[in-house]
Structure formats: structure tokens, C-alpha cells
Amino acid sequence: MAKNANATEKLDLRLKAVLDGLAGAALANESVDARAVLAASVDAVPFDEHEAFLLSGGIPRGHKALTAATAKLVKAGWMVKGRAGWAITEEGLRATVAFPTAQALAEALASGTPVPADTPVPTEAPAKKKPTRKSPAKVKAKATAPQPAEVSEVPADATGAVDLGQPDAVAIAGDFATHLGAEADWEPQPDAVQMGLDSVSRRWVRTVDLPAGHYAFKIAINRSWDENYGAFGTFNGANHELAHDGGPVTIAYDHGTKDVAFS
């Protein structure tokens, strides 16, 4: 029980750090980089050995728990998630004032306690706490917000990069690979899941035609899982998720930010 309680407390601290990070960016009129916000929360409360354990697909147990927990903030109406990224709402800003500690925030989310009507909107970001220690496995995220998917189409087999620093191949490896002609899902090697490097945008692009459904995938580099990027460009991060109405959708990967955009 003590171990579970400690794990819960650490998750609550990270969730509070996420909300405070979004608030800080909003109040500073800065673009919100969800990758950096998530990374900062883990930097403040590092994963222990149990949380750092990689689940199937290469996702740290603690990272999966944290991204799942952010759904509570969405349900409460304190943040929104969209194709352009994450954003805190005005009610979320007021929540940072009404529930200033991780414990108070967790209790409010658990009980569905609304923000008191007389709570003001803050004018400055919540005070940041110094990290307790640095996480040795931490990969520093860049503070560049994902760019809109203004891309031009290229053939799917145009894999060969010419830019210095570009990989030789980039794959969209996920649970829709068989729809693209691969023999199995979640394999980074088949030609059927490779992307093409656009000569203008210098992004790796692929348009796929999928049935309506909810899909998950990762970006796999050079036909291997040795280097892969998930949500918000995180190395070995949580899966990218695509709720699709059916039909063609273009996926663009930027090797500079390690993130994807849809159009």
C-alpha cells in the first residue's frame, strides 16, 4: 500500500506540474510545447526504476500513466488537446489558483470539485519548484512548437535522404500497417510503411487511406525500433494516436522536432 500511495503521490505531482507548465506558457504568451511540458514534469519528479520500465512498444510505464492522467484535466475542462497541441483553458488557469498544491488538485479532480466562482485568473505563472534530482535517462526536449502540416505530396517509395542529419528511412509503424499492404502491424521494416522525404518542406510525408477508426503508431527510424519517436517527439514515447473519420490523411514527420502533424 505504501508503494502504491507513493506512486500515486508522484503522479499527482507530475500532473500538477503539467497544468502549471501550460499556465506558465499561456501567461507568458508563448507557444505551448507539450513535449517540453511533459518532460519538465518528469524532470521535477523523476521516474523510479518501476516507472522507467519499458512496456510493449517502448513506452516507459510512468510516461504512459502520466499521459493517461492528463485526460482528467481535459474532463475537468481545464485543458484541451488538439492537432495543434495542448492548451490550458481560462478555468484551468483559475484552477492553479484554487488548488495550489498537488494534493488539492488531485482531490478536486477525484471529487469533481469545480473551481470556486470567485477565484481570479492569475496574472503570473505558478512558482516553479527545482527538480529533486536529474533523471539519467531523460532526453531534453526542444522548445520548438510543432508546425502546421503545410506539406506537398511525394511518392511513398521516395525514401533516400540527402540532407545532412536526415535518416535513411522513416516509417509509420503502427496498428494500421496491414491496411497499407504490410504482412503484419507494428513492424518498421516493410516498404509498405515507409515515408518519403519532401524536397520543399524537408519533412517525411505519407498520405494513407484508412477506414474510420482509432489508430496508434510510432515513427521508426532506419527500419528499426532502436530509434523511435512517439507523442510530442519523445524518444521511446507514448504512441501517436489518430481518431480518423475514414478516407485519406497525410502524416508529416519533422526530423528536427521529431514530431508529426496531420492534414
From TrEMBL:
CDD domains: X25_BaPul_like (cd12962). Gene3D superfamilies: Immunoglobulins. It holds the Pfam family X25_BaPul_like. InterPro entries: Ig-like_fold, X25_BaPul-like. Residues 170-259 form the Amylopullulanase X25 domain. It comes from Sinomonas cyclohexanicum (Corynebacterium cyclohexanicum). Residues 128-141 have a biased composition (Basic residues). This is Amylopullulanase X25 domain-containing protein. Residues 110-153 are annotated as: Disordered.
